[in-house]
Amino acid sequence: MKKIQIKNNLKKIPIFDCLNDDELELLSSISKLQVYPKNSNIFYEKDKLEYIYFLTEGEVKLYKVDRFDNEIFLNKLHKNSFIYTVSNLCAKDDEALGVFYSVETVKECEVLLIDVKKFKSLFLTKPEILRRILEESYKSILQLQFIVNRDIVYDGMAKVANMLCNDLDSFNSMKKHEIAYSLHLQPETLSRILKKLVRNELIEVINGKVFIKDFNALKEIYE
Fold it and tell me: How far apart are CA 9 and CA 110, in angstroms?
């Protein structure tokens, strides 16, 4: 039953939809499913990884810790996401896969783990798989670009406007202190920004939920 579940999960990953049934069976044999409780670490910054990590259920946060032990939020990933970029599959065989961030579960998570060394020896000769890895790597670059813009380029207003335009559901499902943490803002600053957006008639807040009144004007704040 577990093997069937693994195979079904592999079928849902776009990078592997070019594989035939026999190849999926082979990939299943070098993969495993693991459940992580809420608020547990999947791996830490600088760990050397032996698996590709794909989130099949749940939600995780990516973060770093500075030299003063302050946690710095980077990103949040939802189900059907690679937790660790597959671009590292292109590294030389003698290079250990290190990571530059830690990953913690926000809720209970199910993660698909694929053996890196076995995957490289069995599948990296397939041109289509290599093309899919490049596509996934490009997504990682876009994700990094978003993080740089949010944390370095955007001011507080632009950070909030960006999240409202691109991830309104998450904004409305999170508590205000969680939103402030993810945007690297003080809760009081977030409240002031939301009030200003309401005054400018870009958004309205009903029963604690934000509704966008002028999407284009809101988008112009961060573009």
Answer: 11
